[in-house]
């Protein structure tokens, strides 16, 4: 299948083809004694992910584990569908996200408020997962991949309060979710993901420091793909966060409303990213992954909380 890329170490990147785009959201299959899927993608992507897993020789009863870095719909929206397709798999998520996978009603209502009519096209509907199949992770925890191989889970909030990073004991790969931001491989652009309501600058920077201390060999971005230049990428991520926060602070201190703040930050950051110089589709992809209005409103929300 043309949406599967072997990354070595029995790890396979699966392009989930979110919203019909390629190279926008990845799931990762780790083969071995206990096959494990990291990230499901959206509900609308679930059949694509299922077929990719099947093509790699993993049958309906063979998938042992499905783990998500956090419960946002581009990462975990397909959990209920994948759980149905693979009835023997344990569903693993941080304890702060577990109840929302069992009962997604509040999560879906919130997403509907944010995305409106685009919700169905972009994400579909997160189906409930039987609570008995869900394993809630502590702040540090371990997932058994079989044969002595493990994924170590590390609580890494800042982007979301239910976010974890996952490091593979065999490859040194660190699955970073959205904590390091959004990476566009065709341009090398890296941009933060700071949506409301959970963004917190100090917490996000602490999570990057935690990732640095784990000494990974490679970063595996959910958006999108592997990056081998670990330390400089983590440094860039911290710099990007500070740039966006500084610009939004300036808008906030000048009393700008959200629309004017978004316009200012978009203009001041545009030249930082090659995606906007290449073509309209690449720019559109980048904006879908890390929308300026979401980033700015998340930082504004944090600033308002900090002042109260």
TrEMBL record:
Every Metallo-beta-lactamase domain range: 24-223
Domain of life: Bacteria
Pfam families: Lactamase_B (PF00753)
Record-linked PANTHER family: METALLO BETA-LACTAMASE SUPERFAMILY LIPOPROTEIN (PTHR42951:SF22), METALLO-BETA-LACTAMASE DOMAIN-CONTAINING (PTHR42951)
Descriptive protein name: Glyoxylase, beta-lactamase superfamily II
